[in-house]
Amino acid sequence: QHRATPAGAHEVRTIAQAINALADANAALKADVAQQVRDANARIEQERSRLAALMSELAQSVLMCNTEGRILLYNARAMQLLRKPLDSAADTGKAVSLVGLGRSVFAIFDRNLIVHALESIQDRMRQGTRPPVANFVTTAPGGQLVRVQLAPVVSAVQDGADAGGAVDGCVLLLDNITRRIESGARRDQLLHAL
Predict the structure, then answer these.
(1) Cα-flanking dihedrals φ and ψ of residue 94, to 5°?
(2) Which residues sit opposite 74 in a β-bridge?
(3) pLDDT tens, the chain, 194 aa long
């Protein structure tokens, strides 16, 4: 914000005016960049709010993770499904949630299952197979059987990058299939008894 005072000979005043003009241009450029950053942050926050509102209304449990397995976004249904009963409170029905922003998805699901699913998705993406989605069944911390559909979050294609983009994370769609499996097993037992 410092400006030179035009004083002295004509050449010195001309240099001082040029320095001041350069400083004004620099300040205007910095203000423009700062405004663009504020606008971009506001758009990102608006998109994040829209996505969070959309996810909260979904009937299915959803987790969004980065490539390190850190949870970036989740909905209430996922938090409810992935509660772990406290051992000391088995009779009281109390539970602790393993879902939270920044927590590891590997504390909930076996790391090998997710890594294998991501590797198979990357293989499908290299082969151009659509859709690059992986499915697996596992148990939730509460003992329920959960079918997981894992879809990649692909980054935007950069200039000169491969057409598939890079995997920046994944979205896990969770479906509690415990009752379906139990009712199928009961039906099979009845058919077998008949």
Answers:
(1) -75, 150
(2) 63
(3) 788 888 888 888 899 889 989 999 999 999 999 999 999 999 999 988 888 788 777 778 888 998 888 998 888 888 888 887 666 445 556 667 778 888 989 988 889 999 999 888 888 888 877 778 889 998 888 888 889 999 988 876 554 445 456 788 889 999 888 888 778 788 888 888 88
